[in-house]
Amino acid sequence: MYRHSHAVFELLDIDGGHTVGPAEFQATRFLFNIKKGELSQIFKDFDISGDEQLNYKEFRMFTIFCIDRQQRKAKEKLKRQMAKAQAEDEAEDEVEDEPGEEEDEVDFTED
């Protein structure tokens, strides 16, 4: 996504003003899987100039943030999956190790 940030910026810049305003920024929810409630705060956080518009440099910082966020979420998800698999393996090992009913031995030798 970072490599394509300029093309994405141009697509979002609907009015051609070389900035992305709050209304145009709404489209990033779909692109970056951001909750609606977080979007306005994120916009304010990356509007370094304070002009209520994101220029390309501000938008590029935003894309880096989103990539880092997605990578962090993917790592967390992988850790949870690995922990779950390990817990399942340990539970399976415990079941195998439990003493079961021993089979009755039958003596087939003649006396």
Automatic annotation (TrEMBL):
Residues 88-111 have a biased composition (Acidic residues). Residues 77-111 are annotated as: Disordered. InterPro entries: EF-hand-dom_pair, EF_hand_dom, EFCAB9. It comes from the Eukaryota. Residues 34-69 form the EF-hand domain. PROSITE patterns: EF_HAND_2 (PS50222). Gene3D superfamilies: EF-hand. This is EF-hand domain-containing protein.
